[in-house]
Amino acid sequence: MSGPLPSSTEICIVGAGPSGLACALGLAARKIPFVMVDALEAGHNSSRAVAMQASALEAIKTVHPQLVDQLVSAGIQSKSFTVIDLYERLLFRLRMTELAAYTKYAFTLLIPQHTAERHMREYILGGGDSIYWNKRVVGVKEAADGVQYELQFESGEALTARYLVAADGSKSFLRTFAGILFIDPYTKKAAEPGKNDLSFVVADVVFASPLPANVPRDGPQVMVGAGGMVLTAPILSEDSADASVQNDNLFRLYLGVPDTPPHAPDAPYLQAILNARGPGSHLKTQPVPQVVKVVESSRYRTRMALADRYVHRAEGGAYILLVGDAAHKHGPAGGQGMNMGICDGIELAQAIAEHRKCAADAEKAGAHKAVQIMDAYSTRRRAVALQVLNMVDRMTEVEKGGQGWGAYLRLKFLWAFFKMPFTNGIFAWQLSGLGHAKKP
Ligand SMILES: Cc1cc2nc3c(=O)[nH]c(=O)nc-3n(C[C@H](O)[C@H](O)[C@H](O)COP(=O)(O)OP(=O)(O)OC[C@H]3O[C@@H](n4cnc5c(N)ncnc54)[C@H](O)[C@@H]3O)c2cc1C
């Protein structure tokens, strides 16, 4: 929808990425009305993520079980995650099947972020709710009544709301307005290149047929080497009408790069990296996969940061509530950001529902409890993010590869570690995020 905005609403979700959409799904399931806005002209957020973990699927299932079935059928169920060295020796294989006793989703779902978002959007729109595109928030202030915020849009429109959901990504306008610090939780430094400031190229490519046997079609494979990681993950095409995009040879590539890559890396750029440190580059028994088509490509620079709180309460009782990348940001190792954002969004919808109920209670005890509900959301989700950031930080060190005894011993240790079913299971559990699920 790109028509005029209403002038007021109780809840406004700013940002229709996966976190905002998850919050919208949670509200829609409770029949709580909201307005959702996004600066984009139409829904196609940059497709960064490809891995959806069991925690996100379980969280969505709590509000819309049918949507999870749709997502699962639109992706590839990857039972394991393989890490090899430049000579294609197996360093370790993480088996997600170890989770079978705890979840129906004992796999990592390989689904491009834009596909997942499309399914979530269609679900919301199918339920009669709308998303307003081309609505960039450019200003916020406390409304004259003191119990609402007023958002100003680039279009010149204005909208008042009591709850503002800041799902507006890592450069969040609303977080900045609220004065919430967004810093590296370990170095405590803001906006400075940290030790995990990494450059990545993300590209959806079609490889030439026949696909070399050293590029698995049933799950992601990471090759670690001195120049940075090379990850191949099979994906399904959304566009079955385009015969040149054959599902069998369609892959998402994540390439760690030491320098600043071009804006939209082309086939020769990607091929040069694969030739230097991709499958077949060092162990010459198999050919290097050849890129015949680049469907989409982009570059990213990531840095670790965490909001020092997820909730900002105005004097009059209006709220700014952070979800997703607006609250936490880290590298792509382990495919965690979108998952955490989806779980944030679904938990926030629950918190808003409980808060509205409490706030409607005129008694003082009710008002006090209402504040506690939001504080609990902030404390719980921030603690989850801190644990995930820690795990991603350790995984990033492995994916960076590196040379020398330190890197060698680390990989040997991991090889021994992942050999044991028990420890393999513990790590699969951590990666899945299931341990962070909210107890009913
Ligand atoms: C290279 C890379 C690979 C990744 N791989 C994975 C993975 O495999 N698995 C995983 O779980 N995560 C992964 N992630 C992380 C994942 O992509 C993000 O965590 C996820 O996109 C966050 O979703 P979000 O909705 O919080 O924010 P975003 O996706 O950034 O969405 C924010 C939305 O807000 C809108 N917006 C911003 N400002 C305004 C404004 N002022 N007014 C109105 N609208 C506004 C934007 O247009 C956008 O649509 C990866 C990230 C990178 C960089």
Overall description:
By secondary structure, this protein is an alpha+beta fold. It has two domains: 11-75 and 111-188 and 306-400, FAD/NAD(P)-binding domain (3-Layer(bba) Sandwich), CATH 3.50.50; 198-302, Alpha-Beta Plaits. The chain is built from ten helices and 22 strands. It has helices at 18-29, 54-63, 65-73, 113-126, 173-178, 267-277, 337-360, 364-399, 404-419, 421-432; strands spanning 11-14, 35-37, 51-52, 76-78, 80-85, 90-95, 108-110, 131-132, 137-142, 149-153, 158-161, 163-166, 182-183, 198-207, 221-224, 230-234, 250-257, 291-302, 305-307, 311-313, 319-322, 328-329. The strands form five sheets. It has a seven-stranded mixed β-sheet. It has a six-stranded mixed β-sheet with strand order 8-2-1-12-21-20. It has a three-stranded antiparallel β-sheet with strand order 3-7-4. The radius of gyration is 22 Å and the shape is globular. The protein starts with 10 loop residues before the first strand and ends in an 8-residue tail after the last helix. The model has no long low-confidence stretch (mean pLDDT 88). The structure holds flavin-adenine dinucleotide. Flavin-adenine dinucleotide binds next to helix 1, strand 14, strand 18 and helix 7.
